[in-house]
Design a protein that fits this description.
The protein is of the alpha/beta class. The chain has 19 helices and 13 strands. The structure holds S-adenosylmethionine. The site of S-adenosylmethionine has 18 residues, from helix 15 and strand 6.
Amino acid sequence: MFGKRIGDLSKGVFFAAKVLSKVEESGSSIRNILFKEYFKRRVEDYKLLNQALHFTLETTRRLNFVDHVIKTVLPKVFDEDFPSVIKNLLRISTYQIVFLKEKPEDIADILKPIILKKVRKNNKIIKEEIFTYIFKVRSLVKKEKMISEANGLEKLAFTTFHPKWMCKYFVDLLGLEDAEKLLRNNNRKKPSWLRVNTLLTNRQNVASILREEGVIVEFDKDFPDVLRVIEEEKKPVTLSNPYKEGLIFIQDKASCAVAHVLNAKPEDFVIDLCAAPGMKTTHIAQTMKNMGLVLATDINCYRAKMIKMNMKRSGVSNVEILCTDGKILELKLGKKVDKILVDAPCSGSGTFQTHPEEKWRLTPNKIKKYALLQESLLSSAVNLVKVGGQIVFSTCSLFPEEGEEIVTKICNEYPVEVVEKGVRGGKAVKNGWRFYPPETKGFFMSKMRKYAEHKS
Ligand SMILES: C[S@@+](CC[C@H](N)C(=O)[O-])C[C@H]1O[C@@H](n2cnc3c(N)ncnc32)[C@H](O)[C@@H]1O
């Protein structure tokens, strides 16, 4: 029985280590690589998928601490010529020993078959060093001692698992107590949310089909087409029939709020300026009862094709897709739009719960670059909308530079004003609303109205 558990874990740990190496090499996301590699196998093994998801996400979430432990005991792991898969195996093992309190002998048993197969026969030194590390790491490194020896921002970085610069940023912004709470919440599991496709069904119907298939959901109190997943007993919701048939979309509650805030009507002409892969586009189409017109634009032509796929899945037909740069979009015949959504590219700092790899890649400079892009996309939106028309601006970012501050700049420069001061489920902040982890992803949203023609 125990041997079987070790054998299963060996497979899960090795798969996870390979995924982490590919994530590092490609700069892509853990979930992207993990699902790609999983489906390549063509063997449905839900347990393996869950194990790999757990090891990749939880190790990466704590990467600063895990790497600090390894650097203290076996620094050569970070040499350029050290095999990347073995480095990631050691990262996962460190997570298991230090955080899950697994016994070193069990971890050694998990690693043995992998190391024997994967480390070149003649590389005896590496093999020995790996096992010495596994047996010694617990006695050489005491987590609590390491944390108590750290001070100030380093301590916050070790206890909340965030880069030091980010800890400083949030302490300056919110004060220590609230910053710590926010950073800790970034590590907590987020509920799964579903958006019901009301063009094809209703919440009640979907909830009862899902229950029959072993997925338990509850109605969200704030939005009439949102469900919260309570339990995925037998299978993940992505393998359920309502998902396969386009009756539901996996979409965070905060992101579902956007179409409700935009509140497009069946007779409206709407632009979704940064639309791919089309989650919000199809939701907007849904609130318009599949009438009127939505022009969905995106600079990335490959991603723009995904809008088409999502339209097909959801039975949406009132959307035109255009692959173009939203900063320079001009409409023929001088036609102006009633409503426009700018769901802008951003740092993704609101999604660290599901994409922990991003917090180690982000730099203050990247945030500045995103903020400039957001500002110019929003200026373009102001020119496209008619006088009296409305603009919704949103980002899945926790940084005011990608939210409140952009709106202030736009309102100072153009004849636009912030309208509406609250949305259900969100917290009112300067110029808009915010949603926070752990309930939803971190998200900013603002609604503006153009009150006069802009004279440049
Ligand atoms: C946050 S994602 C949009 C998600 C989408 N609204 C949804 O709900 O499915 C941002 C998108 O902006 C696109 N983008 C980046 N720069 C752009 C630009 N200059 N013009 C138009 N789209 C852009 C990206 O390709 C990406 O698809």
